[in-house]
Amino acid sequence: MDTARLFQSGRSQAVRLPKKYRFSGEQVAVRHFGNGVLLLPLEAPWAILDAALNSFEHGFQISRDQPAPQLREGIKPEPKGQSIRARVICWLAARRGRAHRAWQPHHSGTAARP
Q1: What is the 3-state secondary structure (H, E, C) of the chain?
Q2: Of 8, 19, 82, 89, which sits most exposed with the smallest number of CB within 10 A?
Q3: What is the phi-psi region of residue 25: left when phi exceeds 0, alpha when psi lies from -120 to 50, beta otherwise?
Q4: Neighbour tally for 103: CB within 10 Å
Q5: pLDDT in the model for residue 25
Q6: What pLDDT shows up at residue 113?
Q7: Hey, CA dihedral for 50, 51, 52, 54, is it positive or negative?
Q8: Mean pLDDT over residues 30-58, rounded?
Q9: Torsional class of 51: left (φ above 0), alpha (ψ -120 to 50), beta (otherwise)
């Protein structure tokens, strides 16, 4: 595997690419994937993907055993007196460790409206 050298240029991090990896032009498209970075030429950036796919042998296919579709229940109607918005607000407030003033739980188990 070839490597490239990292260095600081002012307040930015830069990469010195080996000669065979250099781009033409002044800029490249940058895409962040997990802890990696993908650099693509600005002119036809996805042409490289097409070229990479064409490098596979003719007739190459990726397949997998697909499980049978799952049978699932339909969507249940929301409970009376509490909208999805109210439940989301209460959930977010609980995650932050405090109750939301506008949606205090009521003794009946539903949210009280402001």
Answers
A1: CCCCEEEEECCEEEEECCHHHCCCCCCEEEEEECCEEEEEECCCCCHHHHHHHHCCCCCCCCCCCCCCCCCCCCCCCCCCCCCHHHHHHHHHHHHCCCCCHHHCECCCCCECCC
A2: 19
A3: left
A4: 20
A5: 86
A6: 54
A7: positive
A8: 83
A9: alpha
pLDDT bin (cut points 50, 70, 90) of residue 4 is: very high
Instruction: Report pLDDT for 105.
Output: 54
52 CB burial (10 A radius; 0-12, 13-18, 19+):
exposed
Q: Kindly give, in sequence order, each residue whose CB lies less than 8 Å from that of residue 104, ignoring residues fewer than 6 positions away.
A: 111, 112
Give me the domains of the chain, ranges plus CATH numbers: 5-54 (2.10.260), 79-114 (no CATH)
Residues whose CB falls within 8 Å of the CB of residue 29, separated by 6 or more in sequence, listed in order: 39, 40, 41, 42, 45
Give the rounded percent of residues in the chain with a pLDDT score beyond 70: 79
> Token pair for residue 10?
């002012």
